[in-house]
Every structure is written in structure tokens, then in C-alpha cells.
Amino acid sequence: SEGNISGGKPGTHAGFTKYLVDEKMGDQDGRKCLDRILACVNNEFETNKDVAGKDFSLYVTGHSLGGGLANLFAFRVAQLKDMNHESVKFLPDKVTALTFAAPVAGNHDYNKEFQSLEKKGILRHIRVANEGDVVPTNEIPLPFSLALAGNSHEYTQNGVNLHLFPDKELAVDYRNTKPFSSQFFYLNPMKSAETHFVAEYTRRVELPANKNSSCYQKTVEEIYAHAGSPC
What we know:
Layout: H1 14-21, H2 33-47, E1 58-63, H3 65-82, E2 95-100, E3 106-107, H4 108-119, E4 123-130, E5 155-156, E6 160-164, E7 171-174, H5 189-196, H6 198-205, H7 208-211, H8 220-226
């Protein structure tokens, strides 16, 4: 609820959130994982002579579960920057999440909070997803939804989606949340699993059609503009 601008009920993935905000074993100060990471990164930007005052950018990245964590971590950093919080005093004014195969991390009200920080120019998210990968989807049906604690219909993606195809140039769109039924290979479930692997993401990223794409020549801000983002 901190910094809530939507007036709604922002919700995030319970497992990812718990990982970031639970106190971690072995930390002498009993800090949350998120706070430990923030302290390390902020310290680098403050004291590392190779970084401090040299106009470095801050990117947060991850694949699959790591992508979900990167989404939430980048959001929290941007939220703290917006509040002029001491814990992010030395970090850049903008943070960018670059995720691969990231699951939906929050509900529609969370997306409203995310967009409010995008509109202020302090948060960006480039979300790379493979056509045929079910992990980034929502609206998960039975029996697959039995493995979930919540209702995936309430969750949505955010940021700009670079959607990778197996044999042609990528597509760029804002948010672009895909339902499970549009991505699952019902006659070949193993193909759905293989589509999620890092190796397949690497192969598609490196397709000649993508390497020659104008998208690869654009900055993050130019990609946002190209995607028709309202931010």
C-alpha cells in the first residue's frame, strides 16, 4: 500500500514477494533480501571509484522466476527513488528491468502503480517472451491452475514486450499479456517446456531476422515510443 496512487488493491505474486521481503538466515542485521541487495548496490554507486559519479545505468535482469523477481525489485527501487528514500540515494534516477520468460508478477492495480512510475520516467521494463512459452501467460485453465494458489485471471504483464517467434522477426507491443490457451502446445506439451529454456531464448534472440531488426538499434526510450506506450 506504500505509495499507492491507484486507490485500488495492488497485489503481487506471493512467492516472489515473500522471497524478497522475508528476513534471510545468516544476515547479522536480520535484513530482508531486498534490503541487503539495495544496500550493496547503493554502496557501489556511492563508493566504488569506477562507478561513482560516472553516469552508469541500473538494469535488473532475470529469466523465469528471476524475471518475476527482477520486475518486483525494479518496481521497488523506482518507488523508493520517487519517495527520495535514503536507501537509494546514490542510485540512478531511472531503473530498467530486462526480463526473459517472466511470469505475471502482479495484478491490474499493481500495473497501475507500475505505470505511474513509468509515466514519471523512473521505471522501464523490457520483457522478452517466446511465442509458445506458457510461463509468461495468465488465464491459466484447469487442470493446470490447480498448481496455483491464486486466480491468474487477476494478473497481468507490464512494460514493453519483445515477442520472439521461432523463425521470423520479433514483434514489439506494450504489455501484450497472452492467455495460456494461446501459447500452449496441447498436442506436444514437451514443446511448450522446451520453448521456455534459456537455449531457445538465446537461439531466437540471435536469429538473423532479429539481429537485422531496427529494434536492436533502438534505445529503451525509443523502444517504448515504438511500442505505443502511454508512458
